[in-house]
Write a sequence for this structure.
């Protein structure tokens, strides 16, 4: 894991150079077909990552409106839009993860087949792939932090709504209520005592809506955690591959270069 953290820092000169290549994202017409295909895949991954970031911006706005919405119908609409954005983002994240793994696999296979003659291309590919993988991990980490942040805000909203009908409600009461999804006996008993007042009904409906949002966010956070585990393994192997390529390049004699 320390190796993973070190690789993510991207502070060495090789990473800076590869970052520039990734930003360019264009293939040299003089490159081999294998490299041109690589650049095409880089461009597609970048487009998917750009869309993920755009979706994050839309989700942040929708979450903000959902937290301030007082209308049940408006809240349901926001929830549907959020679910659509989260589904699309999840699909894009999976596509990027698969693409990065496939590119890594192809690069290793090509390097093994080409031998020392392919060290130059192999180093370029590995550096660029490593830089792009780090950018992806950073983006997903930002997404996970956003999800965690809004999960906390939804829980705070549930706590406020619970206190509408039970002012002395504790944090433990809120946790039990969230576990039951709004069907808690505490809340039902309070509704009966209040003779099903409109305020209590509205609070219950809002709690149930926000509970669904929290569950969805929790699922997303768990999925993103698993992604970090997968990417940690990939970054670790990238570092080992780069070390091997550097060693191979250093072993080339002047005669071999000529």
């Amino acid at each position: 894991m320390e190796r993973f953290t070190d690789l993510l820092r991207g502070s060495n000169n090789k990473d800076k150079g590869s970052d520039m290549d990734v930003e360019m994202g264009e293939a040299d017409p003089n490159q081999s077909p294998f490299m041109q295909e690589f650049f095409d895949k880089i461009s597609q991954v970048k487009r998917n990552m750009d869309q993920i970031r755009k979706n994050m911006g839309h989700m942040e706005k929708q979450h903000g409106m959902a937290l301030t919405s007082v209308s049940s119908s408006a809240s349901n609409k926001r929830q549907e839009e959020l679910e659509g954005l989260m589904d699309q983002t999840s699909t894009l994240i999976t596509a990027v993860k698969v693409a990065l793994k496939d590119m890594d696999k192809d690069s290793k296979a090509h390097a093994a087949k080409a031998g020392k003659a392919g060290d130059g291309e192999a180093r370029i590919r590995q550096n660029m792939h490593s830089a792009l993988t780090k950018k992806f991990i950073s983006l997903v980490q930002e997404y996970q932090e956003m999800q965690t942040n809004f999960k906390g805000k939804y829980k705070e909203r549930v706590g406020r709504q619970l206190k509408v009908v039970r002012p002395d409600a504790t944090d433990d009461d809120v946790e039990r209520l969230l576990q039951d999804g709004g069907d808690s006996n505490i809340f039902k008993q309070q509704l009966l005592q209040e003779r099903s007042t409109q305020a209590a009904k509205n609070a219950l409906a809002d709690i149930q809506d926000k509970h669904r949002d929290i569950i969805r966010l929790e699922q997303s956070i768990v999925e993103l955690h698993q992604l970090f585990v997968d990417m940690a393994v990939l970054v670790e192997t990238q570092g080992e591959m780069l070390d091997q390529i550097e060693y191979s390049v250093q072993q080339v004699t002047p005669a071999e270069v000529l």
Remarks:
- DSSP finds nine helices and no strands in the chain.
- The radius of gyration is 25 Å.
- The chain has one domain: 11-257.
